[in-house]
Amino acid sequence: MKNYTSSLQFTLVTIVCFLASNFGYSQDRVSTDNIQQWVQKYKADIRGPYKDIRWFCTDGSIRQPKDPCPDNIGPGVQHARYKDEVVSLGETNHIYLGQILAYTDIDELWDAGHNHSRLKQYQLDKYLRLVDNGWINQKGQFYRGSVQVEDEEAWGIDFYKTILEDDKVLLNNFYLIRQSLKDIPHNGDDNVAQLMRSQSKVISDIYTPFMDLRTKIHSQPEKADIQKVIDFKTKHQKSLTTDLNKKLDGLVTTMNTFFKPVDVQALLNTSKLVKGTLLGDKVQSFINAKADNDNPSYIVNETAQLLLDIREDLLTEKRSLARLQLLDISLKLEELLFQNAPNWEPDTVSGQLEKICALTTASVGAGYLELWEWEQISGTLSKFGESKLTLAELTQVLETARSAVEWSAATVKANYQEVVNTYTAFEPKSYAFIDDRIRGSVALHLGQSVGQLGDFISKESALTNKVMDITNQSTFRGLNPGYAFGELVVVDGSSEDIEVSADKIYIFQRSPSDLKPVAGIATVAEGNMVSHVQLLARNLGIPNAALSDQNLQSLKKYDGDRVFYAVSNKGNVILKPEAQMTDQERGLFLKKERNTDKIEVPVEKIQLGTTDVLNMRDVDASDSGALCGPKAANLGQLKKMFPEQVVEGLVIPFGIFKDHMDQIMPGESTSYWEFLNIMFKEAERMRGADVPEPEVENYQLRQLETLRTAIKKMPLKEDFKNQLETKFKSILGAEFGKVPVFLRSDTNMEDLKEFTGAGLNLTLFNVLDKEKIIEGIKDVWASPYTERSFKWRQVYLLNPENVFPSILVIPSVDVDYSGVLITKGINSGNDKDLTVAFSRGAGGAVDGQSAETYTIYSDNGYRLLAPAREALYNTLPATGGTGKKIATFEHRVLNEKNMADIKTLAKTIRETMPNETNSDYEGAYDVELGFKEDKLWLFQIRPFVENKKALSSGYLESITPKINTAKEISLSTKI
């Protein structure tokens, strides 16, 4: 695999700085390089991150280590003090190394104002110590007296006693609190599963032949693996060092502890506050019944239900220490389930469905799924009692179960990704923390069961993926049809600063927010199906699929290989080496087929003589491409149709842009506009002279950079600025610079019948300051000449020189949540259904967030396709700029009233939009909207553009199996 370390670190530093600006960290920050150097220094320091040991007395006094606190001022605690630079790092970067709990205030560790960063850092630190021989305490772990276990445990009990008192805190943070119990000492607790995984990782890192066993232990741990480790040690004895022998013996000891039968009764006996309560009685009944039935299927089912019962009824128990005891019991139950799940091996479809339902129930009980999400999917997953299901019904069960796995993994990422990104910048081993947490969850066994069901359904429907030679292929899921041929690039890390190429196929953890053209794409975190990246891929026929993290890891060995990649109209996926391509597949690339699809930006009706700032009320759909772009024209149309749900606005038309571009460009003898056209003419001359296309493109990008820089410095004409001030006040009702506004680029290349252009140009959020609005206008005018925008246009446009930007200026609405409506069922394939994706805050769903997504059915009801899993969301303060708030997931984003309002809106749009616009357009619409205190606000409407060629391609049709969805499957069928 290629080395992306430097760009990854740059990205992560950017993320840290962004969070600092939003959460108020000091700007006098320590560089990543310095932190990295400190970490290496602490690893070799016998005191690690600590400088000395002191007694901390009850009265606040601090005494030498050999001078304990006298009885008359209280017992006190003894522990290390941090090095001065460690303390400073917390103040400047909000990074806390080597945290000692007894040295920390409870509220400081809970760290609510920073999305619980310090608590998560404590957990990550514990993980790093396991996988890196103590990490920054490699030598310091032997620094006697630096940490006192009994003091840490006493502190842990006080910590949980405090935070578990608050119902809201527990409700909002159930997953995080429950996970923290694995790491924060509170009376002899442990995390044996994590220790087992970390020990096997350390061994395989030192001794490569152990890798296969490590993979087995990480993905499918079974008691039989203990003997495999013993046999491995015997077989490789001649090659093993004394240290490796000790590590293997330690792993065997840990595995014996892990697979030792879980004694829930012993834990209940020590949980004296729980005994005799409603939940305590349920636990006792479970223990009694289990004694008479040790069948794995029975144990998994009953354990899963008890996990759910504890979560659902936990708030009925008001005593914080009793809640702590119940959560400890919950963790033991999860261990019990983890031990027994591999031993339940269903031999029928019904049994497989039952196991999937039970494991999903357990995922809810363990906090990986929210209770409201379980309400949405439980009916679909509870059909194992039926005698038969159609292939369509069985496929829906599979899709729902697969979603449960994805949502569970997304919960882990939503909680920890921010901290992991921060630490990975200076400690790369941090990156594996999220994977470790997922592998230690119920989702591990759920994913395996779903994969087995997927394999069965693939055979029954002939909808089989063919992805190299990797395992668990049923977790691949096609999103957009298309085909591609090129080098495969597998990016296991941040993608934001990866320089992509239009002739390569990319596998990402998460696609970059400003993705440039690529040949093909697949992502672990698909974001949502209506993000700008997804819409562009769909528009251009770029094959696009979702896959699991395990799939990505399996594909890493093919990084750099040339491959053929295709996604069919039904979503099956092909990825194979160049050598295995058929003659038909090679024929697809003999000529550049997409060049024949290029279109021309219509300029015949453009009115460049209009140089007045316009009231948005005075434009409508007929002005699109004439006075302004479709955003302003269509929003003006919506203002006529829905006057109470659309804000006021003003429009800076094409003519004002062209008027300014006709000025002489500084340092040149030509105008800005002439400079642009000379560049395009020279590019055509170069092509005529057989200059290689990369050289032509490089010339154009250099010239565009010069033009873009000049536009940003362009002086605005006084007449225009005067108009802007006057119209601002008369239309928006306030002085220029007193109301925050959005500046939305609105070009004539957007929303053409064959090209969407979604998200290619600049939108400025919530700009208040007068000078910033003036500068923002020039920034928006310059944005069509960025590399990304230009490259996407070049794919489709014959006359890219005739791209004109207008600007839509509208007041900000600080919505509670926002998103996108597509007036067709993208997932269902039914043109009468609706697709809706929403995220909390402003700008929801369009930039690839993990959004709450539904199919709303035309007849009745809806289906949850994905819940929101974004930890932070945008707010639009009245003072301008954007703020960030922390999201929790215990409640859904859209409520029932919102869903009804969206359905009514879609009906009105379908019925009235063509008539109101005198259009013959019969396709679906893409609508951006939001809700503020349950009132619906409309921000944009555009045609929903799909790539008709990809959908109708003869090749894609040939690899799309004909599925008899009405075929009935007996659930007693052997699997």
Compact summary:
The chain has 975 residues and is an alpha+beta fold.
Describe this structure in words.
- This protein has an eight-stranded mixed beta sheet. It has a six-stranded antiparallel beta sheet with strand order 21-20-19-18-24-25. A five-stranded antiparallel beta sheet has the order 13-14-17-15-16.
- The protein contains 34 helices and 26 strands.
- Helix 22 (532-540) links the parallel strand 9 and strand 10 (544-546).
- Residues 1-24 and 592-596 have low confidence and may be disordered.
- It folds into six domains: 44-182, no CATH class; 190-259, no CATH class; 261-341, no CATH class; 466-597, Glucose Oxidase, domain 1; 598-812, Dna Ligase, domain 1; 814-944, 2-Layer Sandwich (D-amino Acid Aminotransferase, Chain A, domain 1).
- It has 975 residues and is α+β, with helices and mostly antiparallel strands.
- The chain is globular.
